[in-house]
Amino acid sequence: MFKMNTVVNRHNHLEDMSYALEEIQSLKPPGQKFRWKVFHPLSLDENTGENATQRDASDFTVTDEEFEAFLARHKAYNPIDENNAKMRDS
What we know:
By secondary structure, this protein is α/β, with parallel strands linked by helices. The chain is built from 4 helices and 3 strands, in the order βαβααβα. It has helices at residues 18-27, 52-55, 64-73, 84-88; strands spanning 2-7, 34-39, 80-82. Strand 1, helix 1 (18-27) and strand 2 (34-39) form a beta-alpha-beta unit. The longest helix has 10 residues, at 18-27.
């Protein structure tokens, strides 16, 4: 199985990754499965103290709408979405 992960963030949420995904699909051996997980950045309240700046994801976060738009644009590739609600509860 070929696995790929993408974190949708402020810098890539408008990208169309279809070309890259098509290329990956064409290069994998016939019958090999492909799994693509798409993550929504999650800032946690524990980001305090001396290491806070190393863990602060606020410059990378996107809105729920921006995340959903990215998923909708790539729905043909069956992304497995890991949105904030799912990650908060895990």
